[in-house]
Design a protein that fits this description.
The protein contains 7 helices and 7 strands, in the order αβαβαβαβαββααβ. By secondary structure, it is an alpha/beta fold. Strands 3-2-1-4-5-7-6 form a 7-stranded mixed beta sheet, with helices on both faces. β2, α3 and β3 form a beta-alpha-beta unit. The chain starts with a helix and ends in a 9-residue tail after the last strand. It binds zinc ion. Zinc ion binds next to loops.
Amino acid sequence: MTIETLLPTPDIFSAKRLLCVQPHYDDNDIAAGGILTQLRQNGAEIFYLTVTNDLMGVIDDTLSPEAAAERLKRDQFAAGKIVGVSQQGWLGYPDAGEYDYFAVRRDLLKYIRMIQPDFVFTADPWLTYEGHRDHIAGMTRIASSDPTVDSAYPGHEIQGVAFYYTREPNIIADISSTWDDKLTAVQCYQTQFTSEGMDDLVMGLDLKSRQVAMGTDFERGEPLKTLHPSALHCGF
Ligand SMILES: [Zn+2]
């Protein structure tokens, strides 16, 4: 018996139902748009859940919060169409603001129970050099924020967790075939990037996708840390 046979690293390419929890409107697509598009093409159903309202990233500060929120959603739907996202949800916690960790956790549990994903995608909460507090959220199975959901849906066991924005990947997904879709999706996020900022992001993604694919037989990759859910406990 080995740890690997006890807690096998789940096969992300077999995923059929993905809940992708992102701090901000654009994180899933920026970090994992390539692999998510590919999984969708393989028949997976994809749900996005955005935790914050992302209002701090909006470039045009003359917009009211309502108008800004509308534009962010417009960008998000345009990008989601390219990736093939089935459903979008929003928790609306204040971007870069004060919120209660346990409240977020209860809301996440509610969505995990309702959507019953086999995989949860999210930002690596242990990213060594992460400066953004909203990217540091945890997740386990306890009580959700909605008793009606808890009584209607049993506690849901996910098969695996996939962290993006990770410095410790255990797989590099080949995204060569979906790179163009990813870029097109990322470029939908106009509300939060100046054209210069978008050029820089695209250049960064371009370089990074090639860098992580070095030593493989493909051109572009996305790094992921995929784990058995129980590997998130007691140092497995
Ligand atoms: Zn973000």
